Amino acid sequence: MAVDQATPDTHARQLAGLDALELGGGTRGGLAPRIWGRVWPMVLAVGMVVAIWQAVVWAGFWPDYVFAGPAEVVPVLGDRLTSGEYWEAIGVTMRRAVTGFAVSVLVGLVLGALVSRIRVLRAAFGSLITGLQTMPSIAWFPLAILLFGLTESAITFVVILGAAPSIANGLIGGVDYTPPILLRAGHVLGFRRLQLYRHVILPASLPSFLAGLKQGWAFAWRSLMAGELVVIIAHQSSLGERLYYDRELADSAGLLATMIVILIIGIGVDLLFETADNSLRRRWGLQQVRN
């Protein structure tokens, strides 16, 4: 009897030890160490890029007016970031990005949901969606300009075509890898069609769908930058328009300053997606706790 009573306690201690081993055996550190652990690799990477950049400038492959160095670009960047007109250009670009991406999410969600569950649509459009995803966005602009002229609608059209297929494929992939046992459990609970999608399929597809959203944003941002370089709209200053005129005026420092702003915006949005991904992983118990 004593052996029988001791066995559950022994098993409990063993399982607790395995759980601690799986979770890394530690607890979260303070806020400051965690922030520093996240920031210093970025600072190191920026320092390395600036050092390589300056070394290329010193090598003299191009004249200064073609390829400006950090010493010339940083003051120009500071001047532009203190200009209200420059912030208006950033605002126009971000408005176009958010609008195009929001419509892309809606289109991709509907398209992915239909194609993933209806076999006829999968056979008809599955490969087409992948083909659209791999097509360069710049190739759509001649058609977009013919259809909509040199307007904002032409840019939005290409942004949607660039982003929606990636979002749809992300959802399709998530649905395809939904464990059958979850579907059977949903049927046992009485879920049918929309209820099954809402309570079982979509939650199970979230990791793949989030990856599709992240990739879709990358395609949308690249399509938008290409569009603003090609479609110059009067009285609507944007980051792409700034790049265009800096190139026309051979203003290398201004061009590189705007490219840095575009890069920073892209990194900022990527950090938002990474935060959402980490939150999802913690909710699903997939993220290890580190010291």
UniProtKB/TrEMBL annotation:
Localization: Cell membrane
UniProt record, GO biological process: transmembrane transport
Cellular compartments per GO CC: plasma membrane
Annotated InterPro entries: MetI-like (IPR000515), MetI-like_sf (IPR035906)
Transmembrane segments: 39-61, 97-116, 253-273
Keyword terms, alphabetized: Cell membrane, Membrane, Transmembrane, Transmembrane helix, Transport
Principal cellular location given in the protein's record: membrane
Membrane protein topology class: Multi-pass membrane protein
PROSITE patterns documented for this protein: ABC_TM1 (PS50928)
Segments forming domain ABC transmembrane type-1: 90-273
Pfam families: BPD_transp_1 (PF00528)
UniProt similarity note: Belongs to the binding-protein-dependent transport system permease family.
Stored PANTHER family: ALKANE SULFONATE ABC TRANSPORTER-RELATED, MEMBRANE SUBUNIT, TRANSPORT SYSTEM INTEGRAL MEMBRANE PROTEIN
Designated name of the protein: ABC transporter permease
Organism whose genome encodes this protein: Streptosporangium minutum
